[in-house]
Amino acid sequence: MKKFLTAIIFAFAFVAVPANAFTMDAQGGFCNRTSHMGRFNMSFYGHLWYPIDQMVFVGLGGGYEELDNVGYAPVSGSVWVRLPVGRTVLPIATGDFGYMFGKNNQMFWRAGAGLDIKNGDRSSIIFSGGYQFLNHSGNGYIYMQAGILIEM
């Protein structure tokens, strides 16, 4: 219970977002167990971000994942860092830590990297991938996602 409360407090610590600093992303893709690479599970994830500056965002993430035919609703505290290499295509590093609600409620963390392809001043196309670990089951998963980022 202590881990659950810690994850919820961490996730909601970044909920208060000023009206002039609204940023969000929506992504979809797949998530595979590292030991069984042939089975693809759908994964949808999104974030509400608070921009520290143009390169660093912190926020709250959530979505839906199906892992080994079990549906989960993850909620997490998240960080997004654009690396200062390039102008239109920027490499990114991401991290999430939170709790998955579902048949087997458990803590999880994600670490990933990808590309942020700028469409203009306020939107980007995102391609990302990384590693996700479930605390209770002890399983590792690899995820790949694509989506869009909107900055206002």
Q: Label the overall shape.
A: globular
- The CATH class label is Mainly Beta
The count of DSSP E runs of length 2 or more, i.e. the number of strands, is: 8
Helices, by number, come to 1
Radius of gyration: 15 Å
Note the run of SSEs as H and E.
Answer: HEEEEEEEE
> Which regions contain 5 or more consecutive residues with pLDDT less than 50?
none
**Strand order within the widest beta sheet:** 1-2-3-4-5-6-7-8
Percent helix: under 10%
| Major pleated sheet | 8 strands, antiparallel, barrel
The helix-and-strand class reads mainly beta
Mean pLDDT: 85
What is the CA–CA distance across the termini? 37 Å
The CATH architecture comes to Beta Barrel
What is the beta-strand fraction?
over 45%
Work out the count of structural domains: 1
The third-level CATH topology is Porin
Give the topology.
Elements: H1 2-12, E1 23-33, E2 41-51, E3 56-67, E4 70-82, E5 89-102, E6 106-118, E7 123-134, E8 140-151
